[in-house]
Amino acid sequence: MLSSLLLKYPQIDPVFFSIPIPFSDIAIDIRWYSLAYIAGLVLGWLYLGRLNKKHPLLSKVQLDSILTYCLLGVVLGGRLGFCLFYQPSYYLSNPQEILYIWQGGMSFHGGFLGVIAGLYLFARKYNISFFAIGDRLAVVSPIGLFFGRIANFINGELYGRATDVSWAFVFPNDLTQLPRHPSQLYEAGLEGLAILAVTYVLVTRFNALNKTKLLSGVFLIMYGLSRIIVECFREPDAFLGYFAGFITMGQILSLPMVLLGIYLIANAKHNKQT
Q1: What is the pTM of this model?
Q2: Of 189, 40, 31, whose CA–CA distance to 111 is shortest?
Q3: Which of 81, 105, 140, 236 falls 20 to 30 Å from 253 in CA-CA distance?
Q4: Is the Cα dihedral 48, 50, 55, 58 positive or negative?
């Protein structure tokens, strides 16, 4: 009876299309996951450009340059974060596999730290306030988070814990074939759409970009709390499991974000950013 109530998982090929290489049997696969990264970065960059017109901070050259810093930060930080946060012993024993990005394995928290490092270098190079640009990225980053989680759902990865709710899915990559929470969609809604909506309102209705550190703090608190909540429905990585019997690595890494966000909001200052 339960199976008749379950939503049918949409069978979407993770490969959007393939580009055959002439005179060979090899093809280059263009995957939804790659397109999600590209869509998030490009749409975020366009949104940043729109914000920059109303709240000038970056020159055209700087606006173009920041996309490169963010891209390198996301990819390098995301990969290193996964290797060091989730499987350090394996990758320290096999350091060459850190470069095998095509095998999968990216961490949001690592990508976040990578973007922070990139922003620091960018702000230092162009003599721009770190938090001024950080506040703006806090507004546009949820776009990338949304598309990334949708790609996780399409790939049938990072699915939720077993459940009997009527909106559960049976994911094809799950060997147990149990109905599970679509935790990727929960994250897309909370980490993506919810943060995007709140920061948009703060910028357009409350002129939040004129209060340095406020939007950065809001982003950190909302993402951290969203991740901590969703981790209660998400299946932990098999090679990690739970800490202390009920805490996940995602929750451990998200708690400092919430605390830092509270600190930033408490220290936010009115300062017209130009």
Answers
A1: 0.90
A2: 40
A3: 140
A4: positive
CB atoms within 10 A of CB 217: 23
**Burial track 60-91 (b if 16+ CB lie within 10 A, e otherwise):** eeeeeebeebbbebbbbbbbbbbbebbbeeeb
Distance CA 35, CA 154 (A): 12
| β-strand partners of 15 | 31
* Six-digit token string for 142: 């949820």
Rounding to the nearest 10 degrees, give the CA dihedral for residues 236, 75, 65, 261.
Answer: 20
Q: Which residues of the chain have pLDDT under 50?
A: 1, 273-274
Alpha-carbon Rg of the chain, whole angstroms? Answer: 20
Residues 64-118 have pLDDT tens digits of: 999 999 999 998 999 999 998 888 888 989 999 888 776 668 899 999 999 999 9
Instruction: For residues 271 and 274, give the distance between their C-alpha atoms in angstroms, rounded to a whole number.
Output: 9
User: For position 3, what pLDDT does the model report?
Assistant: 52
8 Å CB contact between 234 and 181: yes
What pLDDT score was predicted for residue 74? 92
Closest CA to 147 of 92, 210, 103, 191: 191
State both tokens at 9.
């998982």
H or E element that contains 75? helix 60-85
**Is the distance from CB of 182 to CB of 163 less than 8 angstroms?**
no
